[in-house]
Amino acid sequence: MNILVIGGAGYIGSSTSKALAAAGHNVTVYDNLSTGHRDLVKWGPLVEGDALDADRLRSCMKDVRPDGILHFAAFSLVGESVQNPGKYFRNNVGGTLNILEAMRDTNVRNIVVSSTAAVYGIPEVMPITEESPADPINPYGETKLFMERMLADFARAHGIAWTALRYFNAAGGDPEGETGERHTPETHLIPRALMALDGKISDFHVMGNDYPTPDGTCIRDYVHVQDLARAHLLAMERLLSQNDGEGISLNLGSGAGLSVKQILDAVEKVTGRSMHFTTGPRRAGDPPSLVADASKAAALLGWKPERSGVEDIIRDAWNWYLKDQA
Q1: Nearest-CA neighbor of 294 among 117, 113, 129?
Q2: Per-residue pLDDT, 243
Q3: How many CA atoms within 13 Å lie on the side-chain side of 23?
C-alpha cells in the first residue's frame, strides 16, 4: 500500500509510520512541523504542508496517489481548547474538511482518523462502549465528534470508506527507542512526571484530588502507543481489503483504569526515584473517569493491547525520555 500519513511527524503518527513500514507498506508523511518533529520522520519522505492548505493537500495526493490516508493532524489539548476554541474548530474541523475534499477530488477512497474518548464527555456507565452517548464537555471533544460526522457525510455522498479510532490515553514510547512523546509545552501526565524526576520542571501538580474516585484523582485508561500504531495498521488493511464504503468508530484502550496517584506510584517503582508533587485545582473539561470497552476493535480488527501494562508503558517512556534528552 501507498499510505499518506497526515501529521506523521508527531507522537502517534511517527509510531504508526514505523508500523506501516515494518509491514511492508510505503509511507509518505505530510506535516507542517508546527507540533511534529523532522527527526521523527524516518520511514518515508516528508512533504511539508498544512492541512489548512487545500491546494497543497490536493497536489500531494495527486503526486503520492495513496491507497489510503491516516489523519493525525489535529490539535489535542483539552485545556487549550477550552481557552481557545476557535483554534480547534479552525484546524480540526477545517483541516479535516480540506482532507476529505482533496480525497474526493483525487479519487482517494480510504481514511483512518485519529479520534478520542473525549467525544463521550462524562459517561454514566463504565466501561465505555461505542454505543455510549456522545456528549463532549470541551471543544476538543466537540471537534473530534464533528470530524466523525463529516466522515459519515462524505461516505454517503462520495463513497469514502472510513474508520475513526477513539483512543483513550496514549502513552509509552517505541521499545526500540526510535520515536516517542515530545511536546512543547508538555501537558501529559507521564512525561511531565518523568521531567519532574529529572529536575526539568519544579511545578508538578496533580490536578484535582476531590473527584468521585477511590483516591480522589482522575482515572484514565492508558494504552501503549505501539498498540495504537498496530490498530491503525489493522484498520487501514481492513478498509482496503473490504472496499465496501463502511464507516465505523472504534474504541482503543486497555480496559483497565488507573488513577493519577497509581501512575505516580508506578513511575517511582520503575525509575527507582521518588516523586514530589503538589495538588492543584481540577483542570477545566476533565471527566472523573474514562475506561474503554475495546471489544469491538478486537472483533473487527483482531486487535488487543499487547504492551499496555503500566510498567511497560512507563519503562518505554522513561527509556525514550533519557535517550531524547541525551
Answers
A1: 129
A2: 63
A3: 19
Q: Which residues are catalytic?
A: 140
Closest CA to 52 of 11, 97, 16: 97
Does 9 score more than 90 pLDDT? yes
Burial of 266 (0-12, 13-18, 19+ CB in 10 A): buried
pLDDT in tens, 156-165: 999 999 999 9
Cα–Cα distance measured from residue 88 to residue 103, given in angstroms and rounded to the nearest whole number:
22
pLDDT of the residue at 181: 96
Domains parsed from the chain with CATH numbers: 2-171+222-252 (3.40.50.720), 189-220+255-291+306-325 (3.90.25.10)
Residue with the bigger pLDDT between 286 and 298: it is 298
Among 112, 95, 103, residue whose Cα is nearest residue 19: 112
pTM of the model: 0.95
Contact in structure between 219 and 257 (CB atoms under 8 Å): yes
What percent of the chain is modeled with pLDDT above 70? 98
Spatial separation of the C-alpha atoms in residues 72 and 13, rounded to whole Å: 6
Distance from CA of residue 79 to its chain's centroid? 16
pLDDT at 245 over 60: no
Q: How many CA atoms within 13 Å lie on the side-chain side of 59?
A: 8
Report whether 149 contacts 97 (CB < 8 A): no
